[in-house]
Amino acid sequence: MTRSPDSLIPSADGQPPTEKRNDKASNCRQGGEASPRAATQVNAVSASRTLPTIMPIQLDLFPGRVCALKAKPATDRRPARPGPTRRDGVQGGGTRRKHTKITGETLFGPAEEVLGPALIGREAYKGGPRKRGNDAEQGVGGGHSTEEARENRVEGRTATSTIRPKRGKATGLPPQGKASTRSKPGRRKAPERLDKARKLQRTLYRAAKLQPERRFTLLYDKICRLDVLEEAWRRVKANGGAAGVDRISIDEVREYGEERFLREIQQELLAGTYRANRVRRVHIPKPGQPGRTRPLGIPTVKDRVAQMATKMVIEPLFEADFLPCSFGFRPRRAPRMALNEIVQSIHAGYTQIVDVDLKSYFDTIDHDLLLKLVGRRVGDVKVLRLIRAWLKAGVLEDGKVTHPDRGSPQGGVISPVLSNIMLHEVDRQWCDAQGNPLGRVRLVRYADDMVLLARSADEAQEAWNRLQAQFGELRLVVNQEKSRLTTATDGFKFLGFEFRKRRRLYLWPCQKAQRSIAQRVRDTVRSFRGSDRLDVVIRKLNPILNGWCTYFRVGNSNQVFHEVDWVVRSELQLWLRRKHQCPWRTAKGRWHYRFLHQRCRLYRMVGKVSHLEAL
Predict the structure, then answer these.
(1) 288, 512 contact by CB (below 8 A)
(2) CA 208 to chain centre
(3) Of 116, 241, 505, 560, whose CB has the highest number of CB atoms within 10 Å?
(4) Helix or strand or coil: residue 425?
């Protein structure tokens, strides 16, 4: 059989004998080796189905195969790869989160030598210059034939090189920690539903906010609701406390039956047979003031539940009227907010301070005036009678019953709300609803503790005279000994902190607070016997130290924390010395700093300071 010179099928002269098709050809192609099938006559015919547009050239490297001009030489790739290589040619790992750039090089050398001019974009991806407009061939897309061999379609693909240093596995270092699994996006949690008592409070608050002059006349039935009483009992149970004059404690109520106890209170309120019991008065020592005590009134558990239910109903009505300058005994307000307000005012130039102190505020509240102020919002006569009954209830002290005509028992559940209602009349003279001062003086109040801040001494003196007149109208007594005019440079005390401005403003726990925690630690440690174990003593001390540190951790308290930690360690070493009957030097060396704080887990305050936002 003779062949024409233009025939694409090569002649049999100089060709190797025909090989049998087997699976070895596919394995060689997957491994990157030259396929022996390329030299067979069958492959030569299949590779020539698409007619080329240029004159074919017979390459000596692949006898019997026709390739396009400047085709990729089919060489063995394995010797050219010294290590594991990715698809893009980067050794030692992938290119995830790495900046890459196009180098213009292929896996086998510069692109100019193999493919001619460097191609970019889609042209580099497709392996040839992109034909546009009328130059495109006929067919779908006009780029490549659907029967074109796969090897020819990726010949022009370029590789990338990494310009960022390797990290992680690519550096060859051992991995640190366990590999974190990819977290799956969880379902969106449904909003927490409010209970009926909380919904009632929100409804009352919104109604009072929208209608500032409204008096609510239907409140008693809401106090008698069982869900309100259950929530009131839950709060009373969480607060704890001692028993009242009937000597019935919270634990005894649990044994009696909580539901039965609440049903009885509900029936008494609905039937009108509820009567307020007397208050048991006890005296507790004032912190940091040895020898001085504070009177405390303890109602019965039943009265506490009824007072809590009443507070839950009337508090939203007055919360809608309370101003931002008041921070004491209010929901979602804390002493830290009051301290932050003072720091911001001093930084704004209000350095003249009026330190105000009321004398026995809770014992001097006028009942008639207080009920008149409560009646501005509460129009239900039954609720007003309940409040009057708690105010007029007798006080049992040392076996004697007295009926004072002034004051609200300090320690009662409803007393903080009543105290804020009384002093709200003072707030209205100095602050508006947005918290801005009405004049040139700012007021910051936490319950009965308050300070006035002014820019000049004349403004501070005028504000002090004006404030005393307002207290006179409310029939309150000012403590002239503790109230004074001062400056931020001389310093003042507020909420247990001492403020003083030098180059900058500093605040730390006052001496009174330090004496209080030292005395409390001393009493706690010495209450244990010598036969008790050290871990039991430390377990009792840690909550006390944690609570004191949490309150006074704001500001510049680290130096004070050093001193308090030393006092605690000294008291424990003294107790251990008496327990083991050893010298003082031996006790200090044996139960040292590391032993108590690290081994025995004694609470340490140093290093737990957190500054205010305004500092």
Answers:
(1) yes
(2) 31
(3) 560
(4) helix
Cβ within 8 Å of residue 332, ≥6 positions away = none
CA distances from 574 to 471, 511, 515, 541 (A): 50, 23, 18, 15
| Residue 161 zone, left/alpha/beta (φ > 0; ψ -120 to 50; rest) | beta
Pairwise CA distance, residues 468 & 442, whole Å = 16
- Find residue 446's DSSP bridge partners: 449
Mean pLDDT by 10 residues, the chain (615 residues): 45 46 47 45 44 46 47 51 46 48 45 46 49 46 44 44 49 50 58 79 94 94 94 93 90 93 95 92 80 86 95 95 92 91 92 91 91 95 95 88 86 91 93 87 92 93 93 91 91 93 91 92 92 92 94 90 94 92 88 90 90 74
Q: Which helix (H) or strand (E) holds 538?
A: helix 534-552
| DSSP element (H, E) containing 457 | helix 457-473
Instruction: Please check whether residue 557 is in contact with residue 508, taking contact to mean a CB–CB distance below 8 angstroms.
Output: yes
Evaluate whether 373 touches 317 at the Cβ level (below 8 Å). no
Whether the CA torsion 434, 437, 442, 445 is positive or negative: it is negative
**Element holding 101 (H helix, E strand):** strand 100-102
Torsion over CA: 121, 124, 127, 130 (sign): positive
Count Cβ atoms below 10 Å from residue 159 Cβ, excluding itself: 19
The answer to whether the beta carbons of residues 326 and 424 sit under 8 Å apart is yes
The alpha carbon torsion through 34, 38, 40, 42 (nearest 10 deg) reads: 150
Residue 260 to residue 262: CA distance in whole angstroms: 6
- Computed on alpha carbons and rounded to an integer, the radius of gyration of the chain in Å comes to 44
Model confidence, pTM: 0.67
Give, as one character, the DSSP assignment of residue 194: P
Question: How far is 455 from 435, CA to CA, in rounded Å?
Answer: 18
3-class DSSP assignment, residue 106 = strand
Q: Which residues contact 472 (CB under 8 A, 6 or more apart)?
A: none
